[in-house]
Specification:
It is a single chain. The protein is α/β, with parallel strands linked by helices and 420 residues long. It folds into 2 domains: 171 residues, Rossmann fold; 181 residues, Argininosuccinate synthetase, chain A, domain 2, CATH 3.90.1260.10. It has 13 helices and 14 strands. The strands form 3 sheets. The protein has a 5-stranded parallel beta sheet with strand order 3-2-1-4-5, sandwiched between helices. A 5-stranded antiparallel beta sheet has the order 10-9-8-13-14, with helices on one face. Strands 6-7-12-11 form a 4-stranded antiparallel beta sheet, with no helix packed on it. Strand 1, helix 1 and strand 2 form a beta-alpha-beta unit. Helix 7 packs across helix 8 and helix 9 runs antiparallel to helix 10. Bound molecules: arginine (ARG). Arginine binds next to helix 4, strand 6 and strand 7.
């Protein structure tokens, strides 16, 4: 690797990225600029500038990416319906390409020749950061200290010692028990006692949802309005994207909504246990699904479920800036044109209960669905339909009666058909 002069570091202010500043200076003899993306982590942002500069950074840059996160990442994902392995609403995975994109932009603006991140060599985030660097500016050098042969800090204690030796404040970082990642969409918790998947998560894990037992005893009904798949109003009040997300998060927090405890397959081959809190996001997903149930025809809806699986994989694998994701967005956007309408939801002790949905584009017609007399649906037609639709089943069963098939349903014994 060519010697680097100026590095832009994705800085969270945690212990790991704090010690990376003096470490880069010591081992690469370079200038370090710390960049922090505000994606809604709130109080975690307090005092970061001072800390970064104390740690040796020549400059600290705070980027407010909240609006872009909600508009260009969260809303497209809601439209897609992506869920990883049936449970994870992808909060960390989704924020990485945005953070890395703006880190690269900062590197370009500052005339830096390298970018760096504090992800360990065992997780998904390193992949997501570096795939984005490659997609956006493949010319920048990448320094991943945790994978660097010169990196010899192996434990939290060693990291604290290193920090203290370099004058970095570590006060609150000492009692950290889990690895967390918080943004406007979610909070993830991994590590520590969570590493035993047989054990329930301790109460201390939860911070953006209350336990359902402590949620109000009365249900709260809300109404969400969507316009072409985009959430636009809450309880009749139009809200801009960031406020809407925050309000939904407050509601979800209060009613203990959106907790997921799962064992997931990381991209790097490891299975890991994670606990996720996605309060507002869980409400949004539930509401959006109801509009789609009204306005999408069966084929589009079913095909979209397949697309959602791929979309989730692309996000999880760090392939946001890929040709396939953009192409799938084309399909998804088309399906959302008529996803306009309102959904009523009851929030109650960890549950999101649907209380009604309506859309001007609804394909649901009470007069067709009921058994009334009409000229769109003739019950006699169903008989012919069932005959054609069931013909393959009938043929197989008849062969069985004639002794050609096997006794087991579905399993054909093809040897019977062989000629000798
Ligand atoms: N396992 C989740 C994912 O891969 C969460 C990762 C959280 N990252 C973190 N640095 N704590 O998306």
């Amino acid at each position: 690797m060519q010697p680097v002069k100026k590095v832009v570091l994705a800085y969270s202010g945690g212990l790991d990225t704090s010690i990376i500043i003096p470490w880069l200076i010591e081992h690469y003899r370079c200038e370090v600029i710390a960049v922090t993306a505000d994606v809604g982590q709130e109080d975690e942002l307090d005092g970061l500038e001072e800390k970064a500069l104390k740690s040796g950074a020549s400059k600290f840059i705070l980027q407010d990416l909240k609006k872009e996160f909600v508009t260009d990442y969260i809303f497209p994902m809601v439209k897609s319906g992506a869920v990883y392995e049936g449970k994870y609403l992808l909060g960390s995975a989704l924020a990485r390409p945005l953070i890395a994109l703006h880190q690269v932009k900062a590197a370009e603006a500052e005339g830096a020749d390298a970018v760096s991140h504090g992800c360990t060599g065992k997780g998904n985030d390193q992949v997501r950061f570096e795939l984005t660097y490659k997609a956006v500016n493949p010319k920048l050098a990448v320094i991943a200290p945790w994978r660097d042969p010169k990196w010899n800090i192996r434990s939290r204690e060693e990291a604290i010692d290193y920090a203290q030796a370099h004058g970095i404040p570590v006060a609150q970082t000492k009692k950290k028990i889990f690895s967390n990642d918080t943004n406007l969409w979610h909070r993830s918790s991994e590590g520590g006692v969570l590493e035993d998947p047989a054990q329930a998560p301790p109460d201390a894990v939860f911070s953006i949802t209350v336990p359902p037992e402590k949620a109000p005893d009365r249900a709260e009904t809300i109404e969400l309005k969507f316009e072409s798949g985009v959430p636009a109003a809450l309880n009749g009040e139009r809200l801009e994207p960031v406020s809407l997300m925050s309000r939904l998060n407050q509601l979800g927090y209060k009613h203990g909504i959106g907790v997921v405890d799962m064992v997931e397959n990381r991209l790097v081959g490891i299975k890991s246990r994670g606990v996720y809190e996605t309060p507002g996001g869980t409400i949004l997903y539930a509401a959006h699904r109801e509009i789609e149930s009204l306005v999408l025809d069966s084929r589009t809806l079913h095909y979209k479920e397949i697309v959602a699986l791929t979309y989730a994989e692309l996000i999880y694998y760090g392939l946001w800036f890929s040709q396939l994701r953009v192409a799938l967005d084309g399909f998804i956007e088309k399906t959302q044109e008529r996803c306009t309408g309102t959904v009523k939801l009851k929030l109650y002790k960890g549950n999101v209960i649907v209380d009604g949905r309506q859309s001007p584009y609804s394909l649901y017609r009470e007069d067709f669905a009921t058994f009334g007399k009409d000229d769109v649906y003739d019950q006699k037609d169903a008989g012919g339909f069932i005959n054609c639709f069931g013909l393959p089943l009938k043929v197989q069963a008849m062969l069985k009666i004639d002794g050609i098939g096997t006794h087991k349903y579905q399993e054909m014994d093809y040897s019977k058909f062989k000629r000798d």
